[in-house]
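User: Hi! I have a protein structure encoded as tokens and I'd like to know what sequence might fold into it. I'm fairly new to this, so please keep things simple.
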């Protein structure tokens, strides 16, 4: 277990109750995903800078988004915005397969190297614009967008399985966004909002 008990207690106090999510967070060595000079802060609940002007999300936000995805062990999950690969690792602990798309090739390469080194074998990586999703493995049981966008890109909504969950920060990419969940139902999307968040913009 890497995450200290106090951190897990803090997450429980903030409403993260899913024991599988808490276990996944405890088991992923976040210090491997941050720049060396920030290693001392790896288990503090705050975002940290990574290369290419991007950030590794705050642990609570990773916990919240992962909980909202309601992942089952047989699920295939699509992640847009690999970044450091930290969220990818948490997803890969819970899902059968994770497909992750990253805009910056250098970040994708580093994330892949880390996750390979940690023994993750259930992740597919792609470099490119995640706004078009990843058709090859669709439909997905869960889709998570880890960058801010004014609207959910149509291709992503289209690649969601019936009953599938999509989590994304929706709103003004230069200020703040609402963390939204869309669940695909036979007659459209069931939408709910889960607080205000601040993500880096989804690039185009
Ligand atoms: N989940 C990441 C944090 C990601 S920050 C982590 O745990 O570290 C947002 C990421 O989205 C950045 O790496 C950024 O390069 C990527 N990104 C931004 N726009 C994108 C796009 N259109 N397609 C794919 N990735 C994108």
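Assistant: Happy to help. Inverse folding works backwards from shape to sequence: for each of the 204 positions I chose a residue that suits the local structure. Here it is:
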């Amino acid at each position: 277990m890497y995450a200290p008990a106090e951190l897990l207690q803090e997450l429980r106090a903030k409403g993260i109750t899913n024991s599988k999510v808490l276990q996944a967070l405890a088991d992923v060595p976040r210090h491997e995903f941050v720049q060396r000079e920030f290693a001392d802060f790896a288990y503090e609940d705050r975002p940290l800078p990574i290369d290419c002007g991007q950030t590794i999300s705050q642990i609570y936000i990773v916990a919240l988004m992962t909980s909202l995805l309601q992942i089952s062990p047989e699920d295939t999950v699509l992640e847009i915005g690999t970044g450091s690969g930290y969220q990818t690792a948490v997803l890969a602990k819970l899902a059968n397969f994770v497909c992750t798309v990253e805009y910056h090739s250098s970040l994708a390469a580093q994330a892949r190297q880390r996750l390979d080194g940690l023994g993750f074998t259930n992740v597919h990586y792609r470099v490119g614009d995640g706004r078009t999703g990843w058709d090859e493995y669709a439909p997905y049981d869960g889709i998570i967008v880890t960058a801010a966008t004014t609207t959910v890109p149509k291709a992503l909504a289209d690649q969601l399985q019936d009953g599938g969950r999509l989590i994304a920060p929706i709103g003004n990419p230069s200020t703040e966004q609402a963390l939204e969940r869309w669940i695909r139902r036979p007659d459209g999307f069931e939408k709910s909002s889960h607080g205000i968040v601040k993500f880096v913009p989804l690039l185009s």
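A useful reference point when you look it over: Helices lie at 5-13, 19-27, 59-69, 86-94, 105-117, 154-158. Feel free to ask if any position seems puzzling.
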